[in-house]
Amino acid sequence: MKKRNLAVAAAVLAGTVVLTACGGGQKAETTAAATTAAAAETTAEETTAAETAAEETTEAEEKTEGTAELRIGQVEAAAHGDKCFAIVTAVIDSNDTIVASYIDEYQFLSTNETGVPNSESFAESGAVAADKVLASKRVNDAYYSEMMKKAGSTKNIAANFDEIQNYADGKTIAELEELSGKTPEEVVDAVSSATLVDTQGYVAAIVDAAKAAQENDAVVYEGDVDSLSLKRIEAAAHGDKCFTVAAALTDGTNVVLSYLDEYQFLTTNEVGVPNSESFAESGAVAEGKVLASKRVNDAYYSEMMKKAGSTKNIAENFDGIQSFVNGKAIEELEAFSGKTPEEVVDAVSSATLVDTQGYIAAIVEAAKQ
User: Fold this and answer.
1) Mean pLDDT across 198-216
2) Do 47 and 79 belong together in one domain?
3) Claim to verify: residue 169 and residue 22 sit in the same structural domain
4) Does 138 lie in the same domain as 24?
5) How far, in Å, are 31, 131, 156, 171, 194 from residue 160 at the CA level?
6) Average pLDDT of 242-257?
7) Domain-embedded: residue 25
8) Which of 165, 231, 241, 261 stands the most exposed, by the fewest C-beta atoms within 10 Å?
9) What is the arithmetic mean of pLDDT over 251-258?
10) Quick count: other Cβ atoms within 10 Å of Cβ 207?
């Protein structure tokens, strides 16, 4: 595993040490000699002390500035009932502390609401019922929250997700896992700023995402970790048969970390997102189809790619694009929109996807949210 330095912040402060020697009660020549010897010894000790102090000062400054080894992970989860599924992203540091987290949930709603990108294509292909769209609850916050209000909720769904994230951020995986032994009511009481009855499920999903992050490559960030924010969007980065979920951890100027996954309707022989059976039973998804993560189904999807001439798995391609993007300025990445797809593929030598440009654009869009 390779670590990448994203920023370097170092300032060594040199201090001036003033030495004072005193003597008395002995013959002049003896005192002078002793004083000289003592001065030499004291000078050496104080020089060493000065060097140690300088090192400690440097270390303190670096600690104050902030140095963290960061990893990102993402999972799908059935955090709330069987009508929807959550996609949860988490960033952790080397102490397994959650630096940032992001929750969104997806449910099949009527076509009056805003579906994920390529929803029309999904309906035209017959994968999704003609009167349904797969929709982000955050994107449809007003509509979904109105339904919640009728059930007695006092807070919008997006605000609830944000409050759960705020509770989780700054806590270790172990601290959050302690909530798994509590009742749902106790967890709601603990996360007092959120009102969702399934708060426990969302916290558990953040834990799973954080554990997934432990297995991924790290970047070294030197700066104020508290200033970083995790953002995410849905995009049509590749054709019309799928939709992309792109995440970006950013300091406002640079993309510090990124994460890509894509979702497509595959046969029921493959692993669908949580609650796929329920979606089929409700008629929202056609019989014989499941909505599936390309990363989860990496082997199957990559085999199809190989038949088309690809030499790299889909997950490896996504990782290569992320590695290229991480640490670069948003402005620098935006410049790729003015290049041809072929030029972008040449630039991102670690990836072979013809739509590499679209994936970079999706990460940029997420970072600019």
Assistant:
1) 98
2) no
3) no
4) no
5) 77, 28, 6, 18, 5
6) 98
7) yes
8) 241
9) 98
10) 26
